[in-house]
Amino acid sequence: METVHLGLIGGGTVGGGVIRALRRNGSLMASRLGVALSIRRVAVRSLKKSRDLGLPKGVLTDDWRSVVEDPEVQIVVELAGGTTTARDMVLTALRLGKPVVTANKALLSAHGPELFRTAAKHGTNLYYEASVAGGIPIIKVLRESLVGNRVISLAGIVNGTCNYILTRMKLEGIEFLEVLAEAQRLGYAEAEPSLDVDGHDAAHKTGILASLAHGFWVDPKSIHTEGIRQISRLDIQFAAQLGYTIKLLGVIKTVPGPATTTRKKTSAGEGGTRIQVAVYPALVPNAHVLASVNHAFNAISVRGDIVGDTLFYGRGAGADATASSVLSDLADAALDLKHGSVDRVPCFVAHSSDSRVVPMEEVVSRYYLRLEVVDQPGVFARISTLLAKAGIGISSIIQPEGHVGETVPVILMIHDAPNASIQKALRLISRLRVVRAEPVLIRVETFE
Ligand code: NAP
Ligand code: HSE
Questions:
Q1: CATH class held by domain 363-444
Q2: Would you state the pLDDT for residue 375?
Q3: For ligand 1, is residue 81 a contact (CB within 6 Å)?
Q4: Mutate-to-test residue for ligand 1 from 322, 327, 328, highest number of ligand atoms within 8 A of CB
């Protein structure tokens, strides 16, 4: 049987997971693929670290270039992370005509078009199934399985760390920072956890999904991004009383209206699409399946114009789940090498240059608004007057009972309103003397 030799860069959480998974299921894969995968070299940053990878002597090195440039290495697997040296690693391999497998969504987000161009120029391919939603094969779904659909909407829980934190905050009433430390210990969180909790990691992934779903490369700067630091236990509890669960969502939706004033036709013969691409915490109705996706699990619901609603669920982070997606890419890369078919599924196809991302100010949402107000007559009237002047309707007002003290929380559920209008109204409301703390505004997703 033919053997394909791999060069890994990274022997940490994911790299270690891949090495163990290949040891466990390598023979099974070989019998399914008709090609054996063999690890030839593994680069790490420090050879002094003790690690239990069970590799033969001489496989481990601290010189990544020697791995990429080893003439025996046919596929390079970048599992180091970061966007600077990792860019260098991937570009070096692609320029040598070697296929690259990566789990690095930050790298793709920052340099995707350059990497795709380089792969095409050098007659090779870049595989990145593990970059979004850990073990869920969502890249293959969007690129291949749903190729006959227009994607109407996609909503996903794509950051395992945030979902783990929000789940434990809800189920156990634990404080944010305490749970974050646990997520780091379990290997879910990025080396720099602000990537997770401030929504950037979810934005990297949502941008990749939006680009694949809509056929143009979504500039990361156009993705409205909010994290979960401002979510308090109080809001999680109030949301629960109202029948909702707070989740950090990546949201991609087509928005009605022309993408350009000229309605140019694309190569596919169609005018472009306006899409919303954003990451934010949202109240999800408990009846919706995403509300019960807990801990480090991810789930992505995709609505296609032909298929209707679909749902993809699985572990979104951690060594084994992510290794599973890396193995899937290794299988594709090995088969492409065997059959000389690097173009069968190109890493990215831009086919909708006339489409664009709609600025968040234009996006219409429903909202949960929590205000901390002085408990005196006339307060509701003043707040609702300011909202009415901005053309914003209130669907319900709740003043939870049992709060004592000078101020009380008031929850307003707000009808559909453009982001710009609600922000303007909030600036006026927060200036009222009866409003005593920064208002908390969280979107409500209805999935209609
Ligand atoms: P990690 O545990 O920090 O491992 C990184 C590995 O890369 C370490 O072995 C490190 O060496 C090595 N490395 C870093 N810089 C290097 C360099 N210049 N030369 C050679 N080796 C270098 O990170 P991870 O969690 O495995 O994440 C790896 C990638 O997978 C990231 O892009 C991440 O975003 C992505 N990812 C992670 C998960 C997850 O659940 N953890 C899931 C999906 C995707 P040392 O061991 O010597 O430090
Ligand atoms: N830090 C990421 C997460 C790892 O928590 O989802 C998986 O991409």
A1: alpha beta
A2: 86
A3: yes
A4: 322
